[in-house]
Design goal:
This protein has 696 residues and is α/β, with parallel strands linked by helices. 41% of the residues lie in helices and 18% in strands. It is globular. The structure holds adenosine-5'-diphosphate (ADP) and magnesium ion (MG). Magnesium ion binds next to helix 13.
């Protein structure tokens, strides 16, 4: 027998049961039982004293003593329960049965030494155990270890597949243990991170001596999982670097230098300088760059992107910048164009609504190389869009682009362009460490100087008048205001009606001010006009749906009122808030909600009022929504870890990542003797089936 032996050959299983187990639990080989981890343990390793029960309420315990009194008690409307006094030398508790037969009642031994086992309850200072297990033989009752409780169901139990069954099968397997379970981690790694062996881990995860040995087993198994996962990504990255050729951008030339010296509207933050350097070093080498640029909303990613494009240009290459929405692409286009005015660098915008005539010109100019910087939406990906020599592709707001779409960019040049992916909101640390480990990551962890932290407040309907008055005062000071409304697709018509009504109220209240509106039903030209009207300062108020969520940049806007804020997700709220606080003025974000909030909405609102830090917010968001949702639908299913918890196990993930990096840094081919067992295991596991597919 080995780990790959089909389960039908296990004692007590056979072909029929094997088929059933396979159907219900998906098990096919012996190893599946070993990785069927207990949910929790029952502690039958010791006997408690009644005097020490206070700390053990709601856990399962064993007591040794005698029943001194047994009687039926009538309660409620004629129901009876059986109640016993159980006493040891330190005190008394109650044992109760709500379901019992006369026969059973007679079987309960009185005044003899017993071991009782069950879950301890406490009510008004009185301890009790309902439906306890009773054992008269102490040797049978006390086991040498904690006993596993497996995830089960009544359906399984009916077929004899109850907890006892799983305990039996697993303990049979473990008895053959030494020959079965080969170590798969290098000794050096196990020593450094103080990990127990794989054998011991499997043993102690199922039958731990005590809580401490269960913890050690848990940690080892989690580490192993994180380690193998990181290794698969790291090897992919190494493979990519050794095979993916790229155009080396050897020098920094006139365009960059001139812009940097003459046109830069502000001093770069140290973080911007650092990530720019990382990008430059990447692009210098004849290997395709694959880099993720992380930075909070407003941290200045666009400027870094622009400077990278200038380096491409200095080396004779074209670049393109893609955004997921038309509005955002337009915004980028305007800001890039403005920054590059009075230079002879040609910039154009290509989106779904670009007119055919203009489109044709763009296509021609891209082919001839006359057009060097293209900003756009998905339209850029179309096959008809051909470049003379695309050297750099920047993708903003990465979550909204699918993997396949990104791959199409690679094909835009014989030697694929360098890729820089920019995220809209920070990704939780553990996710970034896990799922982007085949990308190099740069982080802008510093905001431009002079920014005042946005003040965020939670208000309810009854405060509306004061919120409006406050907004009015801010307008009098020369500021601009956003009012944002949620839009949920299922009731689009209703939402739309709602938006129009509110627009009316705002126009009435802010009489004499210009109010403009932006929503998803408008044509691109209309949206563009509305946006320009607001951006130019002609309108003081913008009433909008979440179309303004990403990237919109109007520094003079200092108040963001988010209506029905409980209907927005956390990262969305943070994105929206990021539309203010872009200038030197004190900015405000007001979250309007109804009076009744769910627990989760309260957490979201509270998090928003407590912090401006996007990294912190993303952590809370992950706790609320789970990692799968944060990564986006295209990547769901990649978080199917058996033991590892991406939310709670940050430390282990970091340790495993360090271990993998360290190991590959000095032996990328795993040739060291100490790594042979790892290599063997890894090759067997991943041959032909890459469990964790490419992400970028
Ligand atoms: P995001 O990272 O969210 O894309 P942006 O690139 O839109 O942020 O930048 C937000 C605002 O900050 C813009 O108005 C931009 O001009 C400004 N900005 C960027 N870098 C700096 C800096 N180093 N100093 C001052 N302002 C900056
Ligand atoms: Mg941006």
């Amino acid at each position: 027998m080995n780990l790959d032996t089909p389960i039908e050959f296990l004692k007590g299983i056979g072909p029929e049961r094997a088929k059933y187990i396979k159907n219900v639990l998906g098990f096919s080989v012996v190893e599946d039982f070993l990785t069927f981890y207990p949910l929790r343990y029952i502690d039958k390793s010791r006997i408690f004293k009644i005097s020490e029960l206070a700390e053990n309420v709601d856990t399962e315990i064993q007591l040794k003593g005698k029943i001194t009194d047994l009687q039926e008690i009538v309660y409620g409307s004629g129901k009876t329960r059986l109640s016993a006094k159980f006493r040891d030398e330190t005190g008394t508790i109650e044992l109760v049965w709500f379901r019992y037969s006369k026969w059973m009642k007679e079987q309960i031994p009185i005044l003899t030494e017993l071991i009782v086992f069950g879950r301890l309850n406490e009510f008004n200072g009185i301890y009790s155990i309902a439906h306890p297990e009773i054992e008269t033989d102490e040797k049978k009752a006390v086991s040498g270890s904690l006993l596993p409780v497996y995830p089960g169901s009544e359906k399984l139990a009916k077929r004899g597949l109850n907890n006892k069954f799983f305990q039996q099968v697993v303990s049979d397997i473990l008895r053959n243990l030494p020959q079965l379970i080969e170590e798969n981690l290098p000794t050096s790694v196990m020593e450094k991170y103080r990990l127990i062996s794989r054998q011991h881990a499997y043993y102690h995860i199922h039958f731990p001596k005590n809580k401490n040995s269960a913890d050690h087993a848990n940690r080892r198994l989690k580490f192993e999982e994180a380690f193998m996962f990181q290794l698969s990504y790291a090897l992919k990255k190494i493979h990519h670097k050794s095979t993916a050729v790229g155009n080396p951008f050897r020098h920094v030339g006139e365009n960059f230098k001139h812009f940097y010296a003459e046109k830069l509207p502000f001093e770069l933050t140290n973080a911007q300088k650092r990530v720019l350097k990382e990008i430059r070093l990447d692009m210098k080498r004849p290997v395709q760059m694959n880099r993720l640029l992380q930075g909070d909303v407003g941290s200045g990613k666009t400027m870094v992107a622009l400077l990278a494009m200038l380096i491409a240009l200095d080396n004779g290459f074209q670049s393109c910048m893609m955004a997921p929405t038309e509005i955002l692409a337009q915004q980028h286009f305007y800001s890039v164009k403005e920054l590059l005015q009075d230079t002879d660098i040609k910039v154009k915008l290509l989106t779904g609504s670009t007119r055919p005539a203009e489109r044709k010109i763009i296509h021609e100019e891209l082919l001839s190389g006359e057009l060097t910087v293209l900003v756009g939406t998905h339209a850029v990906l179309e096959d008809v869009v051909k470049f003379r020599n695309l050297g750099l592709a920047i993708i903003d707001e990465q979550h909204r682009f699918g993997v396949a779409q990104r791959a199409r960019l690679w094909a835009k040049n014989k030697i694929p362009p360098h890729i820089l992916v920019m995220t809209a909101t920070p990704i939780p640390r553990t996710l970034a460490m896990s799922f982007y480990s085949d990308l190099d990551v740069s982080v802008i962890d510093e905001m431009p100087v002079g920014r005042k932290p946005i003040i965020t407040a939670h208000r309810r309907e009854k405060d509306r008048l004061s919120v409006f008055r406050f907004a009015k005062e801010e307008i009098e000071k020369g500021r601009q205001i956003y009012f944002v409304y949620p839009l949920i697709e299922e009731s689009e018509t209703l939402d739309y009606k709602n938006l129009m009504e509110n627009f009316g109220h705002i126009v009435d209240f802010f009489e004499g001010k210009n109010v403009t509106m932006l929503h998803g039903r408008m044509k691109p030209v209309e949206k563009d006009a509305a946006m320009q009207y607001f951006a130019s300062g002609k309108a003081e108020i913008m009433v909008a749906t979440t179309v303004i969520e990403v990237g919109v940049n109007v520094p003079n806007a200092s108040v963001m009122v988010i209506e029905s804020a409980e209907r927005f997700g956390l990262s969305q709220l943070h994105q929206l808030r990021g539309r203010v606080g872009r200038g030197a003025e004190q900015s405000y974000c007001i979250l309007m909600t109804s009076d009744k909030l769910s627990k989760e909405s309260r957490t979201r609102i509270k998090t928003m009022t407590e912090t401006n830090d996007g990294f912190k917010i993303s952590e809370v968001d992950m706790q609320l929504r789970g990692p799968g949702d944060i990564l986006g639908t295209q990547q769901s299913g990649v978080v199917d870890f058996k033991k590892l918890d991406l939310i709670a196990d940050g430390k282990i993930i970091k340790a495993a990542k360090d271990a993998v990096e360290n190991l590959l840094a000095h032996d990328p081919k795993l040739e060291t003797a100490d790594y042979q067992s790892l290599k063997k295991y890894y090759t067997q596991q991943y041959r032909g089936k890459n469990k964790w597919g490419r992400i970028s």
